[in-house]
From TrEMBL:
Domain Nucleoporin Nup54 alpha-helical: 318-456
Gene of this entry: Nup54
Protein name: 54 kDa nucleoporin
Record domain Nup54 C-terminal interacting: where: 471-509
InterPro entries, A to Z: Nup54/Nup57/Nup44, Nup54_alpha-helical_dom, Nup54_C
Species: Atlantisia rogersi
Length: 526
């Protein structure tokens, strides 16, 4: 994932237009963009098995009952989609306060009721009179305050502009109207950037739901069985349901992400996974949510992919408070539009959160690389051992072949004992004697073989010596060595120039001392 700081200039509106440096500031009709606050973290973790939970009513996924609260999994609303476990700790009912474990996006279905924390996600809701007044008051505080009625109001306007750019403080502009509260979500805040988050590729039928626990990974893994039992109790203890853990992953700030899914078994023996949106809607019910918080769950979200129409809708409408030009540039700079989607980041806390998550992912990648390196080393050791065994077995096979040949020779000698030498055997003996004589002749094959053997021994000896003295340098390493030697040479040249300057200064001092003649009578030096 990357950051795109592009620029922070906002398009100016002719009604209110002032420019400080190179940053144009404007007021727009869209409300300030607001990241939703993350859910409050639960208190002490009391263990999964001992936590008291609220009993849920009996239910069936196949035929959900329509009760006052919508049944356990019978609720039809889909409160959110979730981006994958990459950045932050956002909530599933708005754009989360972080960009990591998931970015919960408000739903897009026609039957769902979108509840966001601090405004719609990328939608542009109709302005209320209060929002219009807030926008007018903000414009008055930034452009034309009437608090003092003299030239000091211009200084106050500049001060309010600085506060708005910084995203903190109060803007006083009228004695009869309360000051404007500047936050980092205001449209004039300059500390905004656009990053990218990985879109999940899980389908709703996979049934994956993310639960973020305010506990360390070791604690969660040690009590994983108690966790499964507690979640099963929260689901009503129905024997047809089975809670399964898909994965456990550590997160920054001693938090842990647990991915679960629920399998429902029907009376006829078939089974299916409960859809992720259905399970998430059940977890978002007030009584179930409080039970999860008692277990230490700070965030829950459904991990489902977005349809192309939903992605297009998100990209077409820039988030409130983000300049459309920056948003368009972020879409152009997207390194992988098929897998990544731009998300706004407001303030240093979001940047710090993303940095922590990236550092965590870097550590995980390094851990995985270390494991792979250890596996490769182990495989290399096994390969060396296997090659040694193969060579040993080859030698053993050769020895056994020779022994077998000797046994055959002795057996053949015993079989032919008492018989006269036959003609073909005599002819074979003559040929063997001829070959032996040719080999033993000094000028024939034996001499040549001895000469070749001596040359081979010499080549092997010199080759081994050359192999010991020969070495190779990588091209990149050679460039680094050249650069290092160049820097050393520059340092030596600089040191020599300093020494020369010092020598000239010493010569000047010596020349001045030589010109100074002492006067013995008066004890005064000229």
């Amino acid at each position: 994932s990357g950051f795109n700081f592009g620029g922070f200039g906002l398009t100016a509106n002719p009604a209110v237009n002032f420019n400080i440096g190179n940053f144009g500031v404007s007021t727009t009709s869209t409300p300030p963009f607001n990241f939703g606050n993350s859910l409050a973290s639960a208190g002490a973790f009391g263990g999964f098995g001992t936590t008291t939970t609220t009993a849920a009513p009996a239910f069936s996924f196949s035929a959900p009952t329509n009760t006052g609260t919508g049944g356990l999994f019978g609720a039809t609303q889909n409160k959110g989609f979730a981006f994958g476990s990459s950045f932050g700790t956002g909530t599933g009912t708005g754009l989360g306060s972080g960009l990591g474990t998931g970015l919960g996006f408000g739903g897009f279905g026609t039957q769902q009721q979108q509840t966001t924390l601090g405004g719609g996600l990328f939608s542009q809701p109709a302005q209320t009179p209060a929002q219009s007044n807030q926008l007018i008051n903000t414009a008055s505080a930034l452009s034309a305050p009437t608090l003092l009625g003299d030239e000091r109001d211009a200084i106050l306007a500049k001060w309010n502009q600085l506060q708005a750019f910084w995203g903190t403080g109060k803007g006083y502009f009228n004695n009869n109207i309360a000051p404007v509260e500047f936050t980092q979500e205001n449209p004039f805040c300059r500390f905004k950037a656009v990053g990218y988050s990985l879109m999940p590729n899980n389908k709703d039928e996979d049934g994956l739901v993310v639960l973020v626990f305010n506990r360390k990974e070791t604690d969660v893994r040690s009590q994983q069985q108690q966790l499964v039992e507690s979640l099963h109790k929260i689901l009503g203890g129905n024997q047809t349901l089975t809670v399964n853990v898909e994965g456990v992953k550590t997160m920054p700030d001693d938090q842990t992400e647990v991915i679960i899914y629920v399998v429902e078994r029907s009376p006829n023996g078939t089974s299916r996974r409960v859809p992720a949106t259905t399970l998430y809607a059940h977890f978002e019910q007030a009584n179930i949510k409080s039970s999860l918080q008692q277990l230490g769950v700070t965030l829950s979200m459904a991990r489902t992919e977005l349809s192309p129409a939903q992605v297009k809708q998100l990209l077409q409408n820039p988030p409130a408070g983000v300049d459309p030009i920056i948003w368009e540039q972020a879409k152009v700079d997207n390194p992988d539009p098929d897998k990544l989607i731009p998300v706004p980041m407001v303030g240093f806390k979001e940047l710090l959160r993303r940095l922590k998550v990236q550092d965590q992912m870097t550590k995980q990648h390094q851990t995985r690389l270390d494991i792979i390196s250890e596996d490769i080393s182990e495989l290399q050791k096994n390969q060396t051992t296997t090659m040694a065994k193969i060579a040993q077995y080859k030698r053993k096979l050769m020895a056994l072949s020779h022994r077998t040949l000797q046994v055959l020779i002795k057996q053949e000698i015993q079989r032919k004992s008492g018989y006269a030498i036959q003609a073909d055997e005599e002819q074979l003996r003559v040929q063997l004697d001829t070959i032996q004589c040719e080999l033993n002749a000094p000028t024939q094959f034996k001499g040549r073989l001895n000469e070749l053997m001596s040359q081979i021994r010499m080549q092997n000896h010199f080759g081994a010596v050359r192999a010991e003295e020969r070495y190779y340098i990588d091209a990149d390493l050679l460039r680094e060595i050249k650069q290092h030697l160049k820097q050393q040479q520059e340092g030596l040249s600089h040191l020599i120039s300093i020494i020369k300057d010092d020598l000239e200064d010493i010569k000047i001092v010596e020349h001045g001392l030589n010109e100074s003649i002492p006067i013995r009578g008066g004890g005064v030096f000229s």
